[in-house]
Write a structure and sequence with these properties.
Layout lengths: L7 H13 L11 E5 L12 E2 L9 E2 L3 E4 L13 E9 L13 E4 L11 E4 L9 E4 L9 E2 L10 E3 L7 H9 L4 E5 L3 E7 L18 H11 L3 E8 L3 H12 L6 E5 L9 H6 L5 E4 L2 E2 L3 E7 L6 E6 L3 H19 L8 E7 L13 E9 L11 E4 L8 H5 L3 E5 L11 E6 L4
Parallel strand pairs: 5-6, 12-13, 12-14, 14-18, 16-20, 19-21
Antiparallel strand pairs: 1-11, 2-10, 3-9, 4-6, 4-7, 5-8, 15-17, 17-18, 19-23, 20-21, 20-22, 22-23
The structure holds adenosine monophosphate (AMP) and magnesium ion (MG).
Length: about 425
């Protein structure tokens, strides 16, 4: 690695520290808010949830069958079935019935166990009778009964702070009647594209291009669990850029400003020229794409703002987001899986050997074939997707993984194992 380039992990740590440092004390110190359960998917729980009631709430039947006193069918068998008069039906949703001794009630799954009953015999072990039923097997006390609180006891901690709210977590809260939860507030991100070549109007004039990074980074922020509160654009004019930023963060409600463009070695580097003198640090990271990076804290009367400056090429901007910003945003709020899943995969589809870069770790767009299965010798295969250059956003759009190539290695051939970041799973 070239001596003047910063190692990737060092810059990852710096960005993570900047975001985490907004609320010293760790993720549990990150501000929280109450949200409706229906809006809680993907959020990180901010406080333990104690079950306000048991689950199930009442003793109920685990099978379609007959509610009985176990003693009334003791010794029943095919050869000598117990015969019980059927006093009626207890469908799911019915109130609790009373079961007289020596008799039975037909009961459905989920229906409340009648008072007096202590077991359920499943319909398969009977003749299914409706006036009287022949039961051809004994069942012990408690058989096919789901006792109240057997899943979650009242007062038990059902979910702990830091849990990620997915379908199962949301489901159990709904079952317990919890309709609002405290979650860590999503980091609020201001996205700012820069470049005088970016068209303001739908039809770019000669030499102008459309802004890809605004939409791209806003989507990346939301996918990472943040909130893209505004997307701005600035021309390559330092005063205009700083004026725009200062106005946008004046409300004090922005956690992170994410800029793109204007950080490399050209003549009109608006972000570097504007934010360098304001204390933002610009460094070269030993990575391709995404070598020029900026980061720091912008002191502001409304509250200090974390700033991360990404390079302008959309492929570089998104790769930099993946490597530095996504894990930092998620770690700051205590997301249980801040990093992408990394899998070992075998290289496939190579026209020529894959040659690692001198001095820079490379993240190559790729397609991961997950169908190969798991276990030794059954690794998935991965195919590089598009050229290594950072100007190929169309290729990135067809990829679902990044091959993580360490710097300076020997050329790799088909069948060699590489580390792959799986972009298709959270
Ligand atoms: P820069 O880092 O500003 O020199 O930009 C590098 C390259 O990325 C240039 O070709 C820019 O035109 C392009 N670029 C910068 N920002 C954007 C953007 N928001 N959308 C699309 N392309 C961009
Ligand atoms: Mg530019």
């Amino acid at each position: 690695m070239s001596a003047d380039l910063r190692p990737v992990p060092e810059h990852q740590q710096r960005v993570a520290d900047l975001l985490a440092g907004r609320h010293p004390g760790g993720p549990s110190a990150w501000p929280s808010e109450q949200v409706a359960l229906t809006a809680a998917r993907g959020r990180v729980l901010a406080a333990d949830v104690v079950a306000p009631e048991p689950l199930p709430a009442f003793d109920n039947s685990a099978m379609d069958g007959y509610a009985v006193r176990a003693a009334d069918i003791a010794g029943a068998s095919d050869a000598s079935p117990a015969v019980l008069p059927v006093d009626g039906d207890v469908p799911a949703g019915a109130p609790v019935a009373d079961l007289a001794p020596g008799r039975t009630l037909r009961i459905m799954t989920g229906a409340p166990l009648p008072r007096g009953a202590d077991a359920v015999v499943e319909v398969e072990a009977t003749d299914g009778g409706t006036d009287e039923v022949r039961v051809s097997a004994a069942r012990e006390v408690g058989r096919y009964v789901r006792p109240a609180g057997s899943d979650v006891q009242v007062g038990a901690t059902v979910l702990t702070a830091g849990a990620l709210l997915g379908p199962a977590q949301i489901g159990v809260l709904a079952a317990l009647g919890v309709d609002e939860v405290a979650v860590r507030r999503r980091p609020r991100v201001l996205v700012c594209s820069t470049g005088s070549e970016l068209a303001e109007h739908p039809d770019p004039a000669a030499g102008q291009i459309r802004d890809a990074n605004g939409a791209l980074l806003a989507a990346a922020v939301e996918e990472a669990g943040g909130q893209a509160v505004r997307v701005l654009w600035s021309a390559d004019d330092v005063d205009a850029f700083l004026g725009l930023l200062d106005e946008a963060v004046a409300g004090g409600d922005i956690d992170l400003v994410l800029t793109s463009g204007g950080v490399s070695a050209g003549a009109y580097e608006v972000v570097k020229d504007g934010l360098g003198p304001r204390g933002i640090e610009f460094a070269k990271v030993a990575m391709q794409p995404g070598m020029p990076q900026g980061s720091g804290t912008l002191p502001h009367p409304g509250g200090d703002v974390t700033v991360v400056c990404l390079p302008g090429n959309p492929v570089s901007a998104l790769t930099s987001f993946e490597v530095f910003v996504r894990p930092a945003l998620r770690a700051a709020v205590g997301h249980p899986h801040p990093a992408r899943r990394v899998v070992r995969a075998r290289l496939a589809g190579l026209d020529e050997p894959l040659t690692p870069m001198r001095g820079r770790r490379q993240l190559r767009r790729a397609r991961l074939d997950r169908s190969a299965g798991t276990g030794a010798g059954a690794e998935p295969t991965v195919t590089p997707w598009g050229p290594p250059g950072s100007g190929f956003l169309g290729w990135f759009a067809g990829a679902d993984a990044l091959i993580d190539l360490p710097a300076d290695g020997a050329p790799l051939a088909a069948g060699d194992l590489v580390d792959v970041w799986d972009l298709a799973t959270g």
